[in-house]
């Protein structure tokens, strides 16, 4: 029996946000149907009852735009084909403006037990600047009806570093969501990804990045507010109430095995990572002919695997146990990177806790300098 | 071949007047052009760098056979570079010749390197054939250029040959003039061997390939030859001539130009300017060889990876064989570690050497900003010649500083007299003479500090004269100047590789500029980095690089891992190109930041 996390990618959005560099496309009903059929085909081809699924994650894109019948068929297929762990974590990402009570009720009936809401901000100007499709009112509504529908494990995504954002507006957004009954919060600083419209207007000097001092101040305030609400950071960008850390995402950071389905989804199994074609049309085409939609793979050597375990594990507050890495891969990181470890500790970016290494508070903001030492 | 049917000649001219194109026509006329190269232009410029930049960097010898009036002639042509920085290449080629074709562009007339190369040819006692080229162009001013050649260089009207190298006009007449006017080499092939090395390169399989002009005697395979300066003896492996690659022959005889391969692995045994003789019956006295030339500019070259030091040394030695104007000596920089202080004939020469080292020898370099040689008199009566600003004595010990001056000739249309005078004044120049070549064209003679000339002077001159002026210069010795050493401190420590010598009046402006530029070039690090410029221990400018506070990949989920690893690897790759100076990591561009003067 192979214990896995299972990821389903839904590459559709109503409209592309201005900062987004994810692969997502416009859709119509017919494309959604073809996609659904192809996805079911892929599930049938790849899943079986040797797998024990510990978590399911419907991510995107915007999974909440899937018509309910489509979603039901997908979920039923998964349930039919594999075994589920008793306390399965089953997350769906939803976006305000694409959700209602009826959908949420069905989600619950389907066994979905965790909701992740892309709220980003509760200030209309800021949402507009990001090119989000929803207002702040709709965002709060999405959160409120999720709670009303009986979900008791809810995540909210927020963004800071938006050019027009102030310390006050950020505090308003943060505290407004914290007033509700959440268990998890993901906080990202706005990235100017090359190729996005946001990046272009930044290059054309139509807008300025948030001054670094303010960004750092927001970061500090955030820690303080979250602390007060008993949310604890456990990964670079993620905070949770005790016991509500996202089990699905922990799979990635701990270097454990997962299977991904849908266009551009990645899988990792037996030290091999591979991905599906990101092209939706090609994906549908291949599965119509019962062909494998895989377009790329890499096999990790024990050394590569060991380094990856360190880089990913260091994202976690608890850090990574070097003796565990040694046992899993046969590679002695301690020895090979002795100089680097010493340097990072002396720079105050990393610390040791027993046989674990972990980021310091300073290191949390300078993670790349730490990760870079283990390449 | 009978001596009387051999002709050795060069083509000399100002840059772009058409030397290499004319050489193309000669090759075609004499059926020396290989088939697959027929479509190429300037075929003798075979080095990648030459083709990319469209200039000749090395002299290119080539042998051609030509039949005229039932007589077969063996012609040795050497195409030469036109840029000032490569005049040493030209002068060595001339030592292998009896004559030269002096090419002048019909639309430009006489320019600075026309004059310089003309004098060089006369000093070498060569017979000159004046040629006006590009007569096909609508802007050709044949009569005017003729008059310049007659009035300024003393040619006779009937000597001048009109040519279009591009259209192939006048080539027959010119080839006839080569056979009729240029004297055949003198020499005696029964005498003991006497051959001059005028160029060389290193072949990793066969050792040094020596370019030689045989003055007396014969050299052939199996013979033992002796290098007169080191006394080393080698057995000749192969001799031959040049024609798109090496063409082995039985022998090379007095009067001929060709190559010798003798499994010479020690490059020091094949010094350019040395004389080769027969080891069994040597001659007594070597040929005069070449005047030692002194570099005009120096810079430090350091391997990016310190374990490449030995590679760099070997590469420099091999390159020097092919480029004897290059000099180098070990230098140990506190900031950059072990490397070499290298001397060049100019900044173009420097650029070309750097590029050749990276391309042909695969060594990655960190180069410091170039500087001239200074003469420093100390209070205790010593006089030091210093080619490295970091070696300057402490300011309290200095009595006076002198810097090299050059005599600069500038030729320009007379409408630009005003802007040129203004430019030279701003560069601390003194006007010595101004003469008219003809009513529309003037020659200025200025004395200027070399330091002002080698950096952006030429670009500025081109821009104030819309590209019409040309420039040549020669050293005239040292003059006292009010110079100071500008030091750059990074996080409180003087970085030797960043200090420069400047005129006192310029120090503050340059200091401010440099620290400002460094601020943008040095990436933020974990701590604050103060940058300071100081003169004689006094800080005259400062900037601060704030510490890096945030650099972390926010999101990293399933599929991202690979992409994120790539990003991290790219960051790391970028870091590799940084040099560690004290605690601070400094990118290579920073060492050139001090170059720019505006
Ligand atoms: N129209 C015309 N152009 C020429 C002639 N000779 C050379 N050129 C052009 O002038 C430029 C410089 O020629 P090149 O042979 O490289 O000059 P070099 O620097 O003296 O070797 C090239 O673009 C040639 O094509 C000519 O007779 N007529
Ligand atoms: S909703 Fe999410 S995935 Fe879709 S465009 Fe916006 S940011 Fe991108
Ligand atoms: Mg040329």
Highlighted features:
heterodimer; A: 375 residues; alpha/beta; TIM Barrel; Arc Repressor Mutant, subunit A; 2 domains; nine-stranded mixed β-sheet; three-stranded antiparallel β-sheet; 16 helices; 15 strands; 42% helix; globular; B: 598 residues; alpha+beta; Rossmann fold; Elongation Factor Tu (Ef-tu), domain 3; Alpha-Beta Plaits; 5 domains; six-stranded mixed β-sheet; 14 helices; 25% helix; 35% strand; binds guanosine-5'-diphosphate; binds iron/sulfur cluster; binds magnesium ion
What does this structure look like?
The complex is a heterodimer of chains A (375) and B (598). Chain A has 375 residues and is of the alpha/beta class. Chain A has 16 helices and 15 strands. Chain A has two domains: 2-253, Aldolase class I (TIM Barrel, Alpha-Beta Barrel), CATH 3.20.20; 304-373, Arc Repressor Mutant, subunit A, CATH 1.10.10.920. Chain A has helices at residues 29-46, 68-81, 101-109, 124-130, 136-148, 167-179, 197-203, 212-228, 247-253, 280-288, 302-313, 322-329, 333-336, 338-346, 361-365, 367-371; strands spanning 2-10, 51-60, 83-94, 114-120, 154-160, 184-189, 232-235, 238-240, 258-261, 266-269, 272-276, 294-299, 320-321, 350-353, 356-359. A nine-stranded mixed sheet of chain A has the order 7-8-6-5-4-3-2-1-9, sandwiched between helices. In chain A, β3 (83-94), α3 (101-109) and β4 form a beta-alpha-beta unit. Chain A is globular. The two termini of chain A are 33 Å apart. By secondary structure, chain B is α+β, with helices and mostly antiparallel strands. Chain B has five domains: 3-181, Rossmann fold (3-Layer(aba) Sandwich), CATH 3.40.50.300; 194-278, Elongation Factor Tu (Ef-tu), domain 3 (Beta Barrel); 297-370, Alpha-Beta Plaits (2-Layer Sandwich); 375-481, Alpha-Beta Plaits, CATH 3.30.70.240; 488-494 and 515-592, Alpha-Beta Plaits (2-Layer Sandwich). Helix content of chain B is 25%, strand content 35%. Chain B is built from 14 helices and 33 strands. Chain B starts with 5 loop residues before the first strand and ends in a 5-residue tail after the last helix. The chains are: A alpha/beta (375), B alpha+beta (598). Chains A and B meet through α8, α9, α11 and α16 of A and α13 of B. The complex binds guanosine-5'-diphosphate, iron/sulfur cluster and magnesium ion. The site of iron/sulfur cluster (SF4) has 11 residues of chain A, from loops.
């Amino acid at each position: 029996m192979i214990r896995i996390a299972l990821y389903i990618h839904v590459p559709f959005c109503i409209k592309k946000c201005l900062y987004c560099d994810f692969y997502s496309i416009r859709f119509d009903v017919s494309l959604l149907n073809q996609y659904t059929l192809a996805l079911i085909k892929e599930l049938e081809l790849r899943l079986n009852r040797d797998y024990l699924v510990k978590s399911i994650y419907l991510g995107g894109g915007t999974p909440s735009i899937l018509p309910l019948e489509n979603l039901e068929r997908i979920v039923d297929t998964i349930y039919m084909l594999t075994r589920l762990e008793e306390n399965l974590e089953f997350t769906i990402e939803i976006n305000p403006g694409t959700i209602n009570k009826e959908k949420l009720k069905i989600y619950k009936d389907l066994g979905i037990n965790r909701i992740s809401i892309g709220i980003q901000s509760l200030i209309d100007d800021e949402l507009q600047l990001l090119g989000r499709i929803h207002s702040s009112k709709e965002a709060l509504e999405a959160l409120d009806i999720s709670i009303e529908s009986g979900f008791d494990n809810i995540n909210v995504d927020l963004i800071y570093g938006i050019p027009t954002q102030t310390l006050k507006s950020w505090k308003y957004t943060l505290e407004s969501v914290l007033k509700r009954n959440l268990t998890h919060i993901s906080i990202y600083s706005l990235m100017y990804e090359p190729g996005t419209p946001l990046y272009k207007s930044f290059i054309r000097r139509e807008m300025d990045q948030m001054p670094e001092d303010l960004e750092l101040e927001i970061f500090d305030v955030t820690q303080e507010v979250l602390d007060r609400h008993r949310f604890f950071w456990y990964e670079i960008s993620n905070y949770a109430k005790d016991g509500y850390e996202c089990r699905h995402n922990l799979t990635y950071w701990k270097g454990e095995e997962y299977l991904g389905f849908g266009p551009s989804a990645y899988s990792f199994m037996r030290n091999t990572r591979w991905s599906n074609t990101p092209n939706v049309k090609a994906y549908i085409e291949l599965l119509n002919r019962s062909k494998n939609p895989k377009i790329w793979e890499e096999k990790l050597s024990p050394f590569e695997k060991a380094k990856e375990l360190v880089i990913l594990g260091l994202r976690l507050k608890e850090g990574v146990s070097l003796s565990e890495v040694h046992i899993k891969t046969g590679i002695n990181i301690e020895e090979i990177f002795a100089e680097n470890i010493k340097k990072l500790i002396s720079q105050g970016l990393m610390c040791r806790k027993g046989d674990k290494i972990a980021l310091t508070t300073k290191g949390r903001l300078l993670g790349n300098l730490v990760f870079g030492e283990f390449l | 071949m009978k001596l009387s049917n051999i002709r050795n000649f060069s083509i000399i001219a100002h840059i772009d007047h058409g030397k290499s194109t004319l050489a193309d026509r000669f090759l075609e006329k004499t059926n020396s052009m290989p088939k697959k190269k027929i479509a190429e232009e300037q075929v003798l410029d075979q080095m990648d760098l030459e083709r990319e930049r469209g200039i000749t960097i090395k002299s290119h010898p080539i042998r051609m056979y030509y039949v005229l009036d039932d007589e077969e002639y063996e012609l040795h042509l050497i195409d030469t570079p036109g840029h000032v920085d490569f005049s040493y290449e030209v002068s060595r080629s001339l030592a292998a010749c009896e004559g030269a074709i002096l090419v002048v562009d019909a639309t430009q007339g006489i320019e600075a390197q026309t004059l310089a190369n003309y004098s060089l040819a006369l000093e070498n006692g060569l017979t000159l054939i004046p040629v006006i080229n590009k007569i096909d162009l609508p802007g050709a001013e044949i009569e005017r250029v003729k008059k310049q050649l007659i009035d300024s260089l003393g040619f006779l009207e009937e000597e001048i040959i009109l040519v279009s190298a591009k259209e192939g006009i006048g080539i027959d007449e010119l080839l006839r003039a080569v056979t009729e006017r240029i004297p055949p080499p003198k020499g005696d092939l029964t005498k003991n061997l006497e051959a001059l090395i005028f160029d060389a390169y290193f072949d990793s399989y066969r050792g040094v390939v020596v370019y030689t002009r045989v003055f007396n005697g014969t050299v052939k395979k199996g013979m033992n030859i002796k290098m007169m300066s080191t006394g080393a003896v080698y057995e000749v492996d192969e001799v031959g001539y040049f024609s798109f690659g090496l063409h082995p022959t039985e022998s090379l005889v007095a009067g001929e130009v060709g190559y010798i391969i003798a499994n010479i692995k020690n490059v020091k045994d094949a010094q350019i300017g040395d004389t080769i003789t027969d080891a069994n019956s040597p001659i007594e006295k070597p040929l005069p060889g070449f005047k030692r030339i002194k570099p005009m500019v120096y810079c430090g070259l350091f391997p990016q990876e310190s374990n490449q030091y030995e590679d760099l040394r070997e590469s420099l030695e091999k390159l020097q064989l092919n480029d004897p104007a290059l000099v180098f000596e070990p230098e140990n920089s506190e900031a950059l570690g072990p490397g070499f202080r290298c001397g060049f004939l100019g900044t173009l020469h420097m650029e070309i050497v750097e590029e050749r080292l990276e391309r042909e020898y695969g060594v990655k370099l960190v180069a410091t900003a170039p500087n001239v040689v200074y003469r420093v008199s100390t209070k205790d009566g010593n006089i030091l010649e210093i080619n490295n600003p970091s070696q300057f004595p402490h300011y309290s010990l200095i009595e006076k500083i002198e810097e090299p001056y050059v005599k600069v000739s500038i030729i320009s249309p007379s409408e630009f007299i005003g802007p040129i005078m203004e430019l030279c004044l701003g560069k601390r120049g003194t006007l010595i003479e101004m003469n008219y070549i003809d009513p529309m064209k003037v020659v200025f003679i200025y004395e200027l500090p070399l330091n002002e000339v080698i950096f952006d002077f030429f670009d500025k001159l081109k821009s104030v004269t819309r590209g019409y002026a040309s420039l040549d210069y020669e050293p005239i010795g040292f003059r006292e100047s009010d110079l100071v050493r500008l030091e750059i401190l990074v996080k409180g420590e003087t970085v030797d590789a960043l200090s420069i010598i400047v005129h006192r009046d310029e120090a503050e402006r340059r200091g401010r500029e440099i620290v400002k530029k460094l601020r943008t070039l040095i990436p933020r690090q974990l701590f604050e980095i103060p940058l300071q410029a100081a003169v004689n221990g006094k800080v005259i400018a400062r900037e601060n690089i704030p510490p890096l506070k945030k650099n972390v990949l926010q999101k990293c989920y399933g599929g991202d891992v690979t992409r994120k690893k790539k990003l991290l690897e790219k960051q790391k790759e970028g870091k590799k190109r940084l040099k560690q100076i004290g605690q601070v990591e400094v990118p290579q561009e920073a060492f050139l930041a001090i170059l720019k003067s505006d």
